[in-house]
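Minutes, project huddle
Topic: does the predicted pose make sense with zinc ion bound?
PN asked that the exact inputs be recorded in the minutes so nobody has to dig through chat later. Recorded below.
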Amino acid sequence: MTWLTRLVGFDTTSRDSNRELIAALGAAAADAGLTPRIVPDPTGQKANLIVSIPDANGSTEGGVMLAGHVDCVPVDAQHWSSDPFRVDIRDGLAYGRGTADMKGFDAAVAAALPDMAAGPLREPLHLCFTYDEEIGCRGAQPLVDALQAAGIRPRVCFVGEPTSMRMIRAHKSINVAQVSVRGVGAHSSLTPDGVNAIEYAARIVLFHRKRCDRWRAEGPFDDAYPVPYTTGSVNQISGGTAVNIVPDQCVVTLEWRSLGELDDAAEIAALQDFCAGVEQDMRAENPAASITVEMIASAPGLDTPEDAESVLLGRELGLQVCPDKVTYGTEAGIYDRGGVSTVVVGPGDIAQAHKADEFVSLDQLAACDAFIARLIRHLRADA
Ligand SMILES: [Zn+2]
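Predicted holo structure (tokens), as shared on screen:
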């Protein structure tokens, strides 16, 4: 059975445990004579995996990191032509959930384990597999922390999200905020007794919309992106219980995806300040009212220069740089901020990700296998 078939066979939808898949990868590393490090999350339901292959002198300083997430998005309410958790090959395309995003890359790394372990390396190689990428890159920071704690400091990282095997240097950040507005319920004929959570939440919706309009009109701009400015929207809202009750709660979920020039921390602070002002107005009506702002996802953007170490190594290994910047987020920004020069490159096309009948072409998988084989040869040269 190929590694792609094995990995797709584990249903690792983000809401579920990934431990069986991580255990299988860990066992394969151990079989190859390598030392797997399984790093569980606080619940123990999920884990990251680090397999660090030291250089010929036993050092894990520097070296190349290959990073992939192992979770995938749900297949709920999608109509698939075949079982999404069983790889089905038709006309040179391998269908299955996660084939493109991004178990194809994970499988290529797993298949190369024996080759990686076969002889001494001139520079270390670090294999990293994460949980919960699809729900806000939640596994990546704990991974960075675990690498630091273990004294592993890669100099270059390739994140294997589907890019048709071209290097992507830049993508926007992603920020998702959940604002919970708690008012005071009352019979709707007695409005002065209540504090209307929906009406106050509407102010926050408008605040966010106005700043999105400002980003669109005033920039910053970067024409390398298909949408050349920071975008944002309010994507979920819920509140109220009946037509004749002043609503005591309203929850608003909003997001923005920004260009590197925008200071996300300042934008988060601006949202919090605005909400604090609304809260003050609510409390003037009734001190029991409150607003909380929680960032439920936050991943920095990526803006790796043309002459960065990761780009140069990728070129040396035969990869081309994609001229475009992309709007989707990845874990790459987190690794890059952690001090590792990072680019995104992996088999398959993002256009197939998250959809029914997701697929990766066998040609793309072969191109990824060849890239990893070249990388191993490169790291072994002159050892
Ligand atoms: Zn992905």
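Observations noted during the meeting:
- DSSP finds ten helices and 17 strands in the chain.
- Residues 69, 101-102, 133, 161 surround zinc ion (CB under 6 Å).
No decisions taken; revisit at the next huddle.
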